[in-house]
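thoughts on both lines:
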Amino acid sequence: MKLFEIPGQAAVVTGAARGIGLATAKLLAEAGGSVALLDVDYETASAEAARIGSKAAAWKCDVTSESAVDTVFAEVAKRFGRIDILVNNAGAAVRKPAVELSMEEWRRVIDLNLGAVFNCSRVAARTMFAQGGGSIVNLASIMGFSGGIFPNASYQASKGGVVNLTRALALEWADKNIRVNAVAPTFVKTDLTVPIFSSPEVLAKVQAHTPLGRLPDVEDIAAAILYLASPAARCVTGITLPVDSGYLAR
């Protein structure tokens, strides 16, 4: 097996209808894997799965729902025969000053960005236990290590939680041969960052915190995820890999 290839492996990608999730699903399929695209937007996910080809399939799934995740992951395991890789990508943000953020908005972000990572990971891990191992890659953020540039308290708190949950699960499941890592992107052009990339003034502020002078594309994040999921990272667990154009080095 080549280092960056995953032939015969089955991957689950959450939030896979667009953005980083979709780019990751495509790259995992190109690397030889079968891919389950999970998203609440089933129509888009299904159309994208059809474009990827016969090794991809889509499921409608609210990853914050315990029963939905139990059901869908069982269906994925039945369809592909196993679950080797889980990419916890689904996420949300509510950019408001903390004093204006409602508790409902806070809970919604924490539940999806952190609660769903735990929910999906523990369900996938049960299958991985039985088959002798696997790899989980979580989507953290540079905001998990930084107070950030803009008010975004719930997102920053949730991503900080992902960083430490990644460490905790990596240690707990190491003896089961399950590696748990995370990727921490900087600002990437996705649905979550439309308010940033659509404002020249705001984007200029982001660029001022970007030493390389260029921001990553979704494909750059997908490449880091493939690395962590692949045999190339067989001795890597419990880390969060920044793909941040130098943001955290400041």
Summary: The radius of gyration is 17 Å.
